[in-house]
Amino acid sequence: MNEDSDHQAQDRKAILDLGDRLGNVSEACRQAGIPRSAYYQYRRRFEAEGVAGLRNRSPRARSHPLTTPKATEDKLVALSRAHPSWGCVRLTNHLRASGTLLSAPTAQKLLTRHKLGTARDRWLDAEEMAERGPAAASAEQLAWIDSWNPAFRERDRETSRPGELVLQDVRSATRAARVYVHFAVDAFGGLAFASLCPTRDTADAVALFAQDMAPGYRALRQRLESIVTPDVPLFWGSARHPFEAALEAAGVDHRAAHAMAARENGLLERFWRDFQIEFVAPRRADWLTAPFGRWQEEFVLWLADYNQSRPYLGYRNHGAPPLAFARTCT
Question: Quick check: 279 and 184 in contact, CB under 8 A?
Fold first, then answer.
C-alpha cells in the first residue's frame, strides 16, 4: 500500500477520534468538512478491518452486478448433466419455469466454462460419470452415450489384448448396394481391418482375413485367437467352406452368432457409424457415378487415418487411435 493511502487512513482515523472526543458526530463532520454518511462509512470499515479499512480502495466493483449467482450456475450444470441432450434454450426454459431467469447465451458461456458447451463435451462427461459405477448414470444419460458411442455398451465384455476376439461382417456401403464393405473390428480397442469390394463373396471375406488381418496381428506380435461372424452362408457352412477352412488352417477359432445379435455389437456399430458419417456421407452426391477404383483408393487413406491418427474418443481408448491403443500390449 502506498504512503498517500496510509496518510489518508490516519486522517480518517483522526476524524473518528474527534467524533469520540466531542461526543457529537454532526460537529465532528462539520469540522472535518465531510457528510455524516462518510463518517458512518469510515466507522463501519474501521470496526470491521481496523486502520487498514480506512485506506483508499479501488473503485472497481468486487463483482460485476450482472454476474450469475453461483446457485444458478450450479443448478444449470446439474440440469445439463441430468439431461445431456438438451440445448441451452430448453435448459433456460426449464429453469425459467421454476423461477430461475437465465438467458441462453449466458447459459452457453457457463456450460462452456464447465466443459459442457457442446454435445460432444456432454457425451464425454456423461461417459466419465457412468464409468464410476452401474448406478452413476440414468437411462437417459446411457441412451445419450449410446447415441455417440455404441462401443460403451461392450464395457462389461472387455478383452485383455488385441486378437483375443475379432468381429467380422460384410455390409452394403449404401442402399444402392453398388459397393460392399468387408470389415473386422478388434474387441480390444476398435482396430479395424476393411476393404471395399464390388461383390459380397466368401472369397473377399477370406482375402480380408489372409491378406490384412493375419499379417496385421503378426506385425503386432499378437495371436489372432477367435473370430465371431454372423451365422450366414458367406461365413458358415461345412468343413470345406472356404472361410472356415482358412481359419482352421491358421488355428483361429471361428464362432458364429445370430446375424441380428452379431450386428448389434457396439464396436461394430461404432465403426459402421463412423464409416457412414465420415466416408460415405461427404461423397453421397457422386457415389453412384464415380469409378469404383476412386472409392478404393480413398477408403485406404481413410482407414489408415481411422486406425493411426484420428482420436478414438470415449470408451475404451479415451482418445488413443486404435493402432496406438493396440500397441500398448506389445
Answer: no
Rounded-to-integer distance, Cα 310 and Cα 321, Å:
6
Q: How many helices (H) and strands (E) does the chain have?
A: 15, 5
* Residue 109 CB-half CA count within 13 A: 6
Cell of 217: 496381428
Query: 63-72, 84-93, 171-180, 300-309 — which is least confidently predicted?
Result: 63-72
Q: pLDDT at position 70, please? A: 93
- Calculate the dihedral angle through the C-alpha atoms of 200, 274, 266, 170, rounding to the nearest 10 degrees: 0
Instruction: Report d(CA 249, CA 58) in Å as an integer.
Output: 83
Q: For residues 271 and 185, is the Cβ–Cβ distance under 8 A?
A: yes
DSSP string computed for 98-121: TT----HHHHHHHHHHTT-SSHHH
**How many CB atoms are located within 10 Å of the residue 293 CB?**
9
Model pLDDT, residue 87: 96
Rounded Cα gap, residues 264 and 105, in angstroms: 39
For residues 99-113, give the mean pLDDT.
95
Interacting residues of 54 by C-beta distance below 8 A, sequence separation 6+: 8, 9, 12, 13, 42, 45, 46
Find out whether 130 and 192 touch, Cβ atoms under 8 Å.
no
* Beta strand 226-230 pairing with 166-172: parallel
The rounded percent of the chain whose pLDDT value lies above 70 is 95
What angle do helix axes 70-82 and 119-130 make, rounded to 10 degrees? Answer: 80
Using the structure block, give the residue that is written with the C-alpha cell 472409392: 295
Contacts of 264 (CB under 8 A, 6+ apart): none
DSSP SS3 for 2 = coil
For the chain, the helix, strand and coil percentages under 3-state DSSP, each to the nearest 5: 55, 10, 35
CA distance 104 to 91: 8
What's the pLDDT score for residue 23?
A: 82
166: closest CA among 319, 322, 324, 277? Answer: 322
